Amino acid sequence: MKRTALVVAWALVITSWSGLLVGCNAQSAAQTTEGEKPAAAEIAAEAKPVLDAWYAALAKAKTFSADTRASFVVLQAGQEVQAQKEVYRVALEQPGKFAVRLVEGEGFTIVNDGKQLYQLDHTKRVYVSDPAPATLKELEKSVVLSRTHLQLGLPLVSDAMAGLPLEKILAPYQKIAYVGLETVDGAKQHHLQASRDGVRMEWFFDEAAPHALRKIQPNPLDIAAKNGREPPPGIELKFALTYDNVAYDSAVDQKLFEVAPPADAAKLANLDDPIAMTLVGKPAPAVELPTLDGGKFNLAEQKGKIVVLDFWATWCPPCVEGLPKLAAMTAKHKDDGVVFFPINLQEEPDTIKAFLAEKGLTLPIVLDADGKAVKSYKVEPVPQTVFIDRDGVVQLVHIGIGELEKVPEQLKDLIAGKKLAALPNESAERK
After folding, report:
1. Which of 267, 284, 302 finishes a domain?
2. 164 and 98 assigned to the same domain
3. Pair 70, 187 in one domain
4. What would the 3-class secondary structure string for the chain be?
């Protein structure tokens, strides 16, 4: 059992790291200075006409669509012990529309309808809406596809449709060899092998026009070696991205480009923000829990006051550093109606009491023994500090202690009745 757990952990490292290593070709292309001639890949004579034909067909295409499947499977003694699979419906339409819609698995939906760039995290049920890239060429500066395994192949397609020179598209690869013409699922396909920074990738293109790219298979063992890792003995790895039902210049269902966030999805300023940011501007979730001293805490009874909730634990160094500072900052405004309630994450009362005694703190600790409040307040990393106004609305959420220096001024603003939730938040500024 332990060995299997190690295999799974190792596999997760490889799948996540592989995206960074063999990610968007477009990202590498974007790093080339305008006008600078990219380094030329060493391309086998037999491979060049295949790539030229593939590129020529895409460069003149007005639309592209396909069903894609990305899969990473780990086998131990012939048994599957780890699998990650994503199935997408993909569509691109000149001059700038594209859609990557998740059909199966955990992942993202990414759509540019020509007006906005919409990204939905299906797992966290959050989404963002940003200004839309005007053309497919602008995808070379975009990192949105790095959220999916489609980055292994889709930028090749979008770059070709955008008219980027083929030599620039292939610049990240040091060598491209021709393996041969093979029969795959009853169809003839050209098998090429591209090498990038020590990682080999098998490419398969249809022999028949329009010479579509049908499969990419990175070598996970190369990726592991590049990362200084070696798989446990007896492990077989399979990593592939396939394109089915590929169509050029066919009518694309315009519904694929529609932006319609699910009713249960919350909007964020930045998709990488903690999900707790979705609480800002909304009524604070109810909290009714016991306290360390044997009493009860009911958030509803605090209406009319400015409430600061701090989710923390004794095992969390930033929590330990921030807790006394927050206690001191809020205590200065006790007469202004500011109250501070630290909510402990599922620790034993004796552990908490010993910690408070050691630090010389006297605080109204709320006990979240079953994690109910943690779930309601979407707590992921701790500490997480939530500021609630007199009307019971969440005005601010701080993750970590990096914003502690702002708290005194923010408390003054809340006391003055300012609605800080209406102001640009930190994540919006970072964008």
Report:
1. 267
2. yes
3. yes
4. CHHHHHHHHHHHHHHHHHHHHCCCHHHHHHCCCCCCCCCCCEECCCHHHHHHHHHHHHHCCCEEEEEEEEEEEEEECCEEEEEEEEEEEEEEECCCEEEEEEEEECCEEEEECCCEEEEEECCCCEEEEEECCCCHHHHHHCCHHHHCHHHHCHHHHHHHHCCCCHHHHCCCCCEEEEEEEEEECCEEEEEEEEEECCEEEEEEEECCCCCCEEEEEECHHHHHHHCCCCCCCCEEEEEEEEEEEEEECCCCCHHHHCCCCCCCCEECCCCCCCHHHHHCCCECCCCEEEECCCCEEEHHHHCCCEEEEEEECCCCHHHHHHHHHHHHHHHCCHHHCEEEEEEEECCCHHHHHHHHHHHCCCCCCEEECCCHHHHHCCCCCCCEEEEECCCCEEEEEEECCCCHHHHHHHHHHHHCCCCHHHCCCHHHHHC
**Confidence at residue 358, expressed as pLDDT on a 0 to 100 scale:** 96
Domain of 351: which CATH number? 3.40.30.10
Judge if 187 and 168 occupy the same domain.
yes
Please name every residue paired with 387 in a beta bridge, in sequence order, or none if there are none: 308, 396
The span from the CA of 248 to the CA of 415, in Å, is 61
CB burial readout 297-324, b (16+ within 10 A) else e? bebeebeeebbbbbbbbbebebbbebbe
State the total domains in the chain: 2
Enclosing domain of residue 377 = 275-430
The CATH code of the domain that includes 184 is 2.50.20.10
245 and 327 assigned to the same domain: no
How is residue 17 written in tokens? 């790291």
Task: Tell me which residues of the chain have a pLDDT lower than 50.
Answer: 1-33, 424-431
Give pLDDT, residue 430.
Answer: 31
What pLDDT is stored for residue 23 in this prediction? 37
- Residues 328, 295, single domain; the answer is yes
Residue (of 269, 257, 241) closest to 110 by Cα position: 257
**pLDDT of the residue at 3:** 43
Same domain, residue pair 162 and 61: yes
- pTM of this structure: 0.72
For 152-167, write each residue's pLDDT tens digit: 688 889 889 988 999 9
Tell whether 279 and 255 lie within a shared domain.
Answer: no
- Assess whether 308 and 398 both reside in one domain: yes
